[in-house]
Design a protein that fits this description.
It comes from Macaca nemestrina (Pig-tailed macaque). The chain has 23 helices and 16 strands. The chain is an alpha+beta fold. The relative contact order is 0.13.
């Protein structure tokens, strides 16, 4: 299995179907004694129901045992309070979340609930006629919790099981989210992290700053035409459009059909996005729409000075259904109930992984981003992304392009500002896509998680280019399901402002102040936050005026890779065809003929891709990922961190990182001694976490899997030996060993 070190794979055979394995708990019910463990509640959090004498199963080696305690359900989380919880509060747990504990599950993090009846596992939903003796909870962060209710009073079992099912699966109203209870209760205690300099893009000044930073203010302008959401509730109050575009055009179709600026390249090319116009059947209205789009297009496509390439992501790329289907299959590989199930499915790992198509979807996203990067960087063309609402795949692709082309986006503040700009202000429907309200399962699509997985591929391949670590990306993905932060719990800025009281008529009530996920001090202590910052990242050196001219020339030369001769300016006939192509896509009609032949696009892409990878990497310049088959890997830290059998003790990247941190500490110590000799008063830098000093005590999936022990089961499951054949047959087969320690 990926991420397990050395893995053996044999011929595909039909092994026995994995089944639920019951756990035998050897304990005397009379000897069960429970210690009173305090339940820590957040401001505004209320206890709803609880059950005592509950056994939480713990996997360790090849046997299973349980920990007694209380299982409680609040309006924020499901929590297990174990008798030995005090033993966990020691120095071994350095990376501790202050909001969500090790045995806490926020209600929004619950994926599926199962019950075991007479050793048969069944999905639980709605009203139950019979209550299970065991409860299994699959979480969206891929944790699996198993609770034995055999020793719990019958009334308590009914109360806790019914309560958990209702509060995690029943449809909710937006105002009933814990987000509002917490904001109201903690309103006077909310403190903003002074170190958080993330650009929120909720003011006109923020957009003007971004325009100036990217040198896009010569061709584009920030507008306030939607202030108060008078024009469109889907768009933010402020955004950027091409300078020649009249502002009254924004009013025409409520923001649809308007090219909205995302980012400008150093060579003047820009990335834009546009949502499609409403589909109409009336020929008269269609003609009006076509005439409107023709006028808009002429403002952005002015050959030979401004050439625009359109990318229709709705019809020529992934569908949201493909993404959801692939992830649904993919996540099942990691929701392992027990060790036996793990080893039984291990032999089919590669075929199951391939059939999910999740890694292929990641590859296609990265490839599309590279194609757009090539158009902007090598061909100096503007690129216009088209999508029905420009709030899903537009957010994904535009963010990846900026990560590859703009080193500022690879800093932590730059990355957080990018998410604010393209996702939060870009109108990505987090509430629906994460299914926080449980109102429509069909709307649930992990688009943002797909983006983070694509970012992880870049971070994994080019670690020195990023100021943040894979641990940062992992806790960011976990934060999708913590309802005390407003960042991922609204569909649009308008929805947020309206429900926070900022757009309401009641001027006497004070608007609620919500936390953002970027205030990391809310979740982690300073020592734990050091694991979010990459110690190998080196900031781009600031140059004095005398150096800038020569260095700028070098920078341009490195980014402008040698390609085929750029195309001549389109003729009038070509312009007409390009315009019609844009109009047909925006009106919702697919066309079979593309403007540029696919062969020509492939040739340009391949030459651009190969040329970049043939040269030394400039971590502060253009950055392209490898997208060949084996280069796209499983994000092991996120997907395998809760599976003890998948961990490597004292190995993988954590061992390398510990040695590097030791060297960094030694260099810092020497530097301090030098500074002391020069009577310097410079303060010493923050000390690296002490847990990293001894890699032998760590798991490969640190900091989430600390001091976990391997199962002693064989690499190939014993239940599958008969299906594999006899010993002589096995000896003839060619086993493949794959070193996956660095996955």
């Amino acid at each position: 299995m990926l991420g397990k070190g050395v893995v053996r794979r044999g011929r595909r055979t039909k092994g026995p179907k994995p089944s639920f394995v019951s756990y035998e708990i050897h304990t005397n019910e009379k000897e069960v004694t429970e210690k009173e463990v305090t339940l820590h509640l957040l401001p505004g959090e209320q206890l709803l129901c609880e059950a005592s004498t509950v056994l939480k199963y713990v996997q360790e080696d090849s046997c299973q045992h349980g920990v007694y305690g209380r299982l409680v359900c609040t309006d924020f989380k499901i929590a297990f309070l174990g008798d030995d919880e005090s033993a966990l509060d020691n120095d071994e747990t350095q990376f501790k979340n202050k909001v969500v504990g090790e045995n806490d599950i926020t209600l929004h993090c619950v994926d599926q609930i199962y019950g075991v009846f007479d050793e048969k596992k069944k999905t639980l939903f709605g009203q139950l006629k019979k209550y299970p003796e065991k409860l299994i909870i699959h979480c969206k962060d891929l944790r699996v919790f198993q609770f034995c209710l055999r020793y719990t009073k019958e009334e308590e079992v009914k109360r806790i099981v019914s309560g958990i099912i209702h509060h995690t699966q029943a449809p909710k109203l937006l105002k009933r989210l814990f987000l509002f209870s917490y904001a109201t209760a903690a309103q006077n205690n909310t403190v903003t992290d002074p170190k958080n300099h993330t650009i929120m893009f909720d003011t006109l000044k923020d957009w003007c700053w971004e325009l100036e930073r990217t040198k896009g203010n010569m061709k584009y302008k920030a507008v306030s035409v939607n202030e108060g959401y008078k024009v469109c509730e889907r768009l933010p109050a402020y955004f950027v459009v091409p300078t020649p575009l009249p502002e009254e055009n924004v009013h025409r179709f409520q923001g649809h059909g308007i090219p909205i600026w995302c980012w400008s390249c150093h060579n003047g090319s820009a990335l834009l996005k546009m949502s499609a116009l409403p589909k109409e059947q009336d020929d008269g209205i269609l003609q009006i729409q076509k005439s409107f789009l023709d006028g808009v297009y002429k403002t952005i496509h002015r050959p030979p000075y401004e050439i625009v390439k359109t990318e229709d992501l709705s019809s020529n790329f992934l569908s949201l259904q493909e993404i959801q289907t692939a992830y649904s299959k993919f996540k099942q590989l990691f929701l392992i109930d027990n060790s036996t199930e793990f080893w039984d499915t291990d032999i089919k790992w590669f075929s199951l992984l391939e059939s999910s198509s999740w890694l292929d979807i990641i590859r296609r996203c990265l490839k599309k981003a590279i194609e757009i990067t090539e158009c902007m960087e090598a061909q100096n063309m503007n690129v216009l992304l088209l999508e029905e609402n420009a709030s899903d795949l537009c957010c994904l692709i535009s963010s990846l392009v900026q990560l590859m082309m703009d080193p500022h986006c690879r800093t932590r503040i730059g990355f957080q500002s990018l998410i604010q700009k393209e996702w939060v202000m870009g109108g990505h429907c987090f509430l629906d896509r994460c299914n926080h309200l449980r109102q429509n399962d069909k709307e649930e699509v992990p688009v943002f998680l797909l983006f983070l997985d694509c970012v992880w591929q870049l971070v994994h391949q080019h670690p020195p280019a990023f100021e943040f670590t894979e641990t940062y990306l992992t806790v960011l993905s976990d934060s999708l399901y913590i309802p005390i932060f407003s960042t991922f719990f609204f569909n649009s800025p308008h929805q947020k402002d309206t429900n926070m009281g900022r757009e309401g008529q009641d001027t006497q009530s004070k608007p609620l102040n919500l936390l953002t996920v970027w205030d990391w001090s809310v979740q982690f202590e300073p020592k734990a936050q050091t694991l979010l910052k990459n110690p190998l990242y080196v900031e781009k050196p600031k140059l004095d005026k005398g150096q800038r001219k020569g260095m700028r020339f070098k920078h341009q030369r490195q980014l402008s890779l040698p390609l085929t001769q750029s195309k001549s300016s389109p003729k009038r006939g070509f312009f007409r065809e390009e315009t019609d192509h844009l109009i047909k896509n925006l009106l919702g009609k697919r066309i079979s003929k593309l403007i540029n032949s696919s062969d020509e696009l492939q040739d340009n892409f391949r030459e651009f891709y190969d040329s970049w990878h043939s040269k030394p990497t400039d971590y502060h310049g253009l950055l392209l990922p490898h997208i060949e088959g084996p280069e796209i890997k499983v994000w092991a830290q996120r997907y395998l961190r809760w599976i003890p059998e998948a961990q490597i003790l004292g190995g993988s990247r954590v061992a390398t990182m510990s040695k590097l941190l030791e060297m960094i500490e030694e260099v810092q110590s020497l530097q301090e001694k030098i500074d002391e000799r020069h009577h310097s008063q410079q303060a010493p830098q923050a000390e690296a976490p002490c847990l990293l000093r001894n890699s032998a005590r760590l798991s490969s999936l640190f900091p989430f899997a600390l001091l976990q022990r391997h199962s002693s089961k064989p690499v190939l499951p014993t239940s599958g030996w008969k299906a594999l054949g006899d010993e002589d047959d096995l000896a003839k087969r060619e086993d493949e060993f794959v070193d996956l320690g660095d996955v």
